[in-house]
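Hi V.,

You were right to ask for the full record rather than a summary. Here it is.
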Amino acid sequence: MKLQLNTKRLQISKAQSTMMLVATVAAIITVFCLVSAKALLAEAKFQSHVISAQKAAAKQIQANVQVAQNLSTQYNQVFEGSNPVNLIGGQNDSNPDVVPPNGDNGRIVLDALPTTYDFPALLTSLSNLLSKDGVGTPSIGGTDASSTANNQPSTNPQVTEINFTIAGNTTYQGSQTLIKDLERSIRPFKVTKMTMSGSESGLSIALSVTTYYQPAKTLNLTTKDVH
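Predicted structure:
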């Protein structure tokens, strides 16, 4: 009788152990499935966001390509075109060796605003212009702000004024030639004030002039995190 009871207890204990093992394995499998399902759902959500971002980027690229093609067509047909005269009245010539006022419109626009302040180079250019136009006893006045000028490229560069004065002796016709040459220069010059004294054959002139420079523009390339 005692042996039978011990055998039954052993069988019950063994059955309980088996049930505990099965329950433990089932719990582990359930937890694993839940964790895996959560990870799969998170990955599916992430991939959905990535695909949406890729579609938006592809759509933007297609739009940019279309705009670029239209701009290229407008540039070739309207801006450059077949007009033999360029924007500043010179010969429309794409030869890189030609000098102002000759040259193609694209080159004129790109060279219009220097990317650095460079006041000494401006004085040299003006001195050559005054010499070419026969202005006697020329003088150029202005303040060299090279030490404080901002020449650093940025994503939003600002056009900055450079003010100076020109004075000298010339004729009435010579003064007209000087003004026309300033107007036809690739670099923009704005005469804000002009005084003349003397006779038509011998004038003393004084000009207040403004020109400009603009630092180079940088592209702000960014990356986007998709969550």
